[in-house]
Design a protein that fits this description.
Elements (H helix, E strand, L loop, with lengths): L2 H12 L1 H6 L1 E7 L2 E6 L6 E2 L3 E2 L1 H17 L6 E11 L8 E10 L3 E9 L5 E12 L2
Antiparallel strand pairs: 1-2, 2-6, 3-4, 5-8, 6-7, 7-8
Length: 134
């Protein structure tokens, strides 16, 4: 990663909530982000599968990180996150990949895939993010 992406990685990994959940950056490119989350007891539910909320958190983080790669001096907020759970996540690390599909003046659309530790596609999401100056 170059300096721009090193800076973005530090912003993402210093976020208190994402840090608490254990989300890490694997790679960043313009319009693309790949993040990971360890499969551990704190993110599981009955049946030793990942909790849907933990999966949605990783999806939103991956989509949001893909948005950050395109912004210069702007932040964003999530407007909507539409999740489709395809398979239970039973192992890790859990991988989230966000890819920008469309960037408008105020809205950015990201397509997000969630994979288990075996590389199986377990969830898909569409995120819409609003560009906001803070």
């Amino acid at each position: 990663m170059d300096d721009k992406y090193d800076f973005l990685k530090s912003i993402i990994e210093m976020d208190p909530f994402l840090k608490h959940v254990g989300i890490k950056v694997i790679s960043l490119e313009d319009g693309y982000a790949k993040l990971s989350m360890e499969f551990r007891e704190e993110i599981t539910r009955l049946g030793n599968i990942a909790n849907g909320g933990a999966i949605a958190t990783l999806a939103d983080a991956a989509g949001g990180a893909s948005v950050l790669t395109l912004l210069s001096g702007k932040n964003h907020v999530t407007i909507s996150l539409n999740m489709e759970y395809l398979e239970p996540v039973e192992n890790g690390p859990v991988i989230g990949e966000g890819k920008i599909e469309r960037k408008g003046k105020h809205l950015i659309f990201s397509s997000i895939n969630i994979f288990d530790g075996n590389g199986k596609l377990c969830a898909h999401a569409q995120g819409i993010y609003f560009l906001k100056d803070f």
